[in-house]
Design a protein that fits this description.
Rossmann fold, alpha/beta, 3 domains, 10-stranded mixed beta sheet, 356 residues
Length: 356
């Protein structure tokens, strides 16, 4: 440890040259890099149940809301829809060789000011979530910081914030009011994705909307070897796949280890359009553990058995059934959301908590 300038003076050991040598020898801490890890941004509305807080804010205003949060500072917020997903995702950091170099970083992005957000931080500490970084922006959405933080997925209960993030080209999803379970004995993390408009772009969906199913299948067969353009969550899946590779390496050294992350594709595609989807994933260097090509079968029936900890889809119609059985996230991207009427979106868009 280097002695301070004043300490050196006090014991009669200070001179300018010695001080300069000491300063030069100080270790400068390396910046915490985010490029080589999976970074998730979450609003508190995605991870915790804010219904009581939001009711105070909506009915009594900001000052009473502030007082409510202060009075309940040491009362942990209840678990929210995405809590089981976030908890299990952070748990894979135990696979990192260096604890200071985690595989996953989850950053809180909040509309609260730092004062009212203190309860959220104490709740994070209460549940033992490994989240230490946060951005608080009073009354303003922090989604603009997504690229600066290398965030591969932003989750929020606020519909407007998510839509604004998607319009800006950022990976974001609205956490819908959904059934969820947090079985402490279940260490597996099951992640399920729709394909078009979520992992892939919406070019093929555009053909489906304009010309129908037959033209859609013909287009996919013709372009079977042409990978799809990436959708909003392509990079998220790529980074999840890298963690799965870490799991495989760990298993080779520890044969008793059971892989925890399981990725599923649950799509309305069916043969013959399934092949292009699989070829696209291969071109990205990723592979799903499971694939469900349902061809119109209700997705909720499948997810009721699969029991994912989170499911991503771009179509509100599908999410009506899935949210009844599993934590569901709306990705408001692409042609389906451009042409949808306000009335069609309302049943699920209303399931939003305003205090984030």
């Amino acid at each position: 440890m280097c002695a301070s300038r004043s300490a050196l003076k006090s014991i009669g050991m200070f001179d300018a040259h010695q001080y300069l040598r000491l300063e030069a020898s100080r270790e400068v801490p390396m910046p915490y890099e985010l490029e080589n890890r999976l970074v998730i941004g979450v609003a508190s509305s995605a991870v915790f149940d804010l219904l009581a807080s939001d009711a105070v804010f909506q009915s009594q205003g900001e000052e009473e809301y502030r007082k409510f949060q202060q009075d309940n500072l040491h009362v942990p917020l209840p678990k929210g829809i995405a809590f089981p997903f976030i908890k299990r995702l952070l748990s894979v950091n135990d696979l990192s060789v260096d604890p200071t170099d985690p595989l996953v970083e989850v950053i809180l992005l909040s509309r609260n000011d730092p004062d009212t957000g203190l309860r959220v931080l104490k709740t994070i500490e209460h549940y033992g979530l490994g989240m230490t970084r946060a951005i608080f922006m009073q009354g303003k959405s922090p989604y603009e910081y997504i690229p600066a933080l290398n965030i591969a997925l932003f989750l929020s209960g606020d519909k407007k914030d998510v839509e604004a993030a998607i319009r800006a080209g950022y990976p974001a999803g609205q956490v819908l009011d959904s059934k969820f379970e947090d079985d402490e004995t279940d260490k597996t993390l099951r992640i399920a994705f729709d394909f078009d408009g979520v992992l892939a772009g919406d070019e093929s969906e555009t053909i489906m909307q304009a010309s129908g199913l037959s033209e859609f299948h013909a287009h996919e067969v013709k372009n079977v070897m042409q990978p799809h353009n990436p959708g909003p969550l392509k990079e998220f899946m790529v980074r999840i796949s890298k963690i799965q590779s870490v799991e495989e390496k760990h298993k080779k050294l520890n044969p008793e280890y059971e892989n925890r992350i399981r990725v599923s594709i649950v799509t309305a595609r069916n043969a013959p359009s399934h092949e292009r989807a699989m070829n696209t994933l291969k071109s990205w260097g990723v592979m799903a553990n499971d694939a469900f090509f349902l061809g119109g079968i209700e997705k909720g029936k499948i997810l009721g058995v699969l029991k994912p900890h989170i499911f991503f889809d771009d179509q509100s119609g599908h999410l009506k059934s899935t949210s009844a059985v599993a934590p569901s996230v709306h990705i408001p991207f692409g042609i389906t959301n451009h042409v949808a009427t306000v009335d069609a979106l309302e049943p699920e868009a209303d399931q939003v908590q305003q205090v984030v």
